[in-house]
Design brief:
Blueprint: H1 2-28, E1 35-39, E2 42-47, H2 49-56, H3 60-63, H4 72-78, H5 86-101, H6 111-114
Antiparallel strand pairs: 1-2
Length: 118
């Protein structure tokens, strides 16, 4: 009986290795630290990506609208799969306002605070 339990434990442990490695790989591939998001006629947004990852801890809070790939927001807007301001107004500002209302530290809620000419 002890041998069966040991064998099952080893098999389960070995079976979890690929999962563990994929989680580690995803943690290591966090994307760019800062991302410049083109904004049409408005100034480009300098987005502190790693700061948001650290604070929010759930990539899907933002990436339910667009994939984790460089240029995906611009690509989807060009394909008319994202509306103009859909990400900024629908995600960023709403999240910042909700965090402010909850008494948590949050980013700006006014357009000219993110769309800054540099």
């Amino acid at each position: 009986m002890k041998k069966i339990i040991i064998v099952l434990a080893v098999v389960c442990g070995v079976g979890l290795i690929p999962f563990y490695l994929s989680v580690q790989a995803e943690d290591q591939n966090m994307g760019a630290e800062n991302i410049k998001i083109p904004a049409g006629s408005m100034p480009t947004v300098a987005f502190p990506h790693h700061l948001h990852q650290k604070e929010l801890k759930d990539c899907n809070l933002c990436h339910d609208l667009f994939p984790k790939a460089p240029g995906s927001i611009s690509d989807l807007k060009n394909q008319q799969k994202l509306q103009k301001k859909q990400v900024m107004n629908g995600k960023c500002i709403q999240c910042h306002k909700a965090r402010n209302d909850a008494g948590k530290e949050a980013g700006p809620t006014e357009c000219n605070k993110c769309h800054v000419r540099i």
